[in-house]
From TrEMBL:
Regions that span the bilayer: none
The protein's name in its UniProt record: ABC transporter substrate-binding protein
Hydrolase recorded as keyword: no
PANTHER family: LEUCINE-SPECIFIC-BINDING PROTEIN (PTHR30483), PERIPLASMIC BINDING PROTEIN OF ABC TRANSPORTER FOR NATURAL AMINO ACIDS (PTHR30483:SF6)
Entries under InterPro entries matching the protein: ABC_transptr_sub-bd_PQQ, BCAA_transport, Leu-bd, Peripla_BP_I
Length: 386
């Protein structure tokens, strides 16, 4: 049972201040209008997390706040500097890989960055930073989660199609690594070039119906198509359009995710209901990852009984830290790269199909460490990255 700290007796609670910095880029709209961004994307998850933190915090003499800041790539550095000058100790960052690294370097030891969006393996490897905690799962974790399921199905021959953007290439490399790790064989690889053409046009479905079968014909014999399309250019068009009748996985079809609005197990139904009542829409991955980042901060405050930024950071990085995430087990941090361990959901458009790690994959420390870069493989060196 938690000891009630002296601050709980105070009339004025100790305020634990954080911020959510979302960096929006001007991009083409998503392939499907169902994926259009909402104004409260990420922020809605933060609001639910603050409610959850305050539920416990009021008994501990603690109160939580989270500023919501929207920036562009050009204004992000100034916004981060303003937050630091405002004595914000924790910033939940929703940005791409490059900006995440740049802003982490700018923050230095002045603030702890909670990466709730960027999935690049380099951020957990050669470009790791001591001041950054990765709440979003990495490309390697997502790829390993899918690979375990495909191996369980005995779908060992993969036809890999990758996009031409850097994030697509990074994701494809993660799938190559997963294939080697779990014993799958990539029988053929093809590159889908993004030519920048129109997406949702009147004739778009006609063009796709003609192009995708031609693009995928005469592939080597395969069990499954694995799409590496992090930029959301082509993968959504693959189901039912490929030359050979094969399952589509990766960035479309069966997709590895940190969260899915159909998730109901382990108490998630009530969690989903509370979010939907607050936001009037289903929860997306960025909402979940932002919620989880701020819940990590709330859990550290509750368990440590402290509101001091340094003590909270130290507790987050300690062996004692764990947080519940409606995924059936406690989530913990890897000390070698500050990546949050977590199960990965495998889902289709409407339903959950499975959850990885699959039960046949064991590990000497944690089965969750079968997903992503394990300690012996890491390229992260905090001694050099601080």
């Amino acid at each position: 049972m938690l000891a009630l700290p002296a601050m709980a007796q105070q009339a004025t609670p100790e305020v634990i201040r954080a911020a959510v910095l979302r960096v929006d880029r001007q991009e083409l709209p998503p392939t499907s209008r169902l994926e259009l961004a909402t104004e409260d994307l990420g922020f809605a998850g933060a609001r639910l997390a603050i409610e959850d933190n305050d539920t416990t915090g009021r008994f501990m003499g603690q109160k939580f706040t989270a500023q919501e800041v929207v920036a562009t790539p050009d204004t992000a550095a100034d916004e981060l500097e303003r937050l630091i000058e405002d004595d914000i100790g924790f910033v939940v960052l929703l940005a791409d890989d490059g900006l995440t690294l740049s802003l982490a370097d700018q923050a230095g030891d002045r603030v702890t960055v909670l990466n709730a969006a960027a999935r690049g393996d380099n951020l957990r490897g050669r470009d790791c930073r001591f001041n950054t905690i990765h709440v979003a799962p990495s490309h390697a974790m997502l790829a390993d989660a899918l690979a375990q399921f495909l191996m369980w199905k005995n779908w060992t021959r993969w036809f890999l199609i990758e996009g031409s953007h850097q994030s697509d290439i990074d994701l494809a490399n993660a799938y190559r690594r997963s294939a080697a790790k779990f014993g799958a064989r990539i029988v053929e690889e093809r590159l889908y070039e993004d030519t920048g053409g129109a997406r949702r046009t009147d004739s778009g479905h006609v063009q796709v119906q003609k192009q995708m079968p031609v693009f995928t014909q005469r592939a080597a014999e395969h069990d499954v198509v694995v799409a590496a399309d992090d930029a959301d250019v082509f993968a959504a068009y693959l189901p039912y359009q490929v030359w050979d009748p094969r399952p589509i996985t990766g960035s479309a079809g069966l997709v590895p995710r940190s969260w899915h609005p159909a998730m109901e197990a382990w108490g998630a139904s009530q969690f989903q209901n509370r979010f939907e009542a607050l936001a009037n829409r289903p929860m997306r991955e960025l909402d979940y990852q932002t919620w989880l980042a701020l819940r990590m901060l709330g859990e550290a405050a509750t368990r440590s009984g402290s509101s001091e930024t340094g003590e909270l950071r130290d507790y987050l990085l300690s062996e004692q830290f764990e947080v519940a995430g409606f995924k059936g087990q406690k989530l913990t941090l890897r000390d070698w790269d500050h990546q949050l361990r977590q199960p990965i959901l495998l889902s289709t458009g409407l339903l959950m199909t499975s959850v990885s790690p699959q039960e046949q994959y064991l590990h000497q420390t944690s089965r969750l460490d079968t997903l992503g870069i394990d300690r012996p493989e890491t390229e992260c060196s905090f001694a050099e990255a601080k």
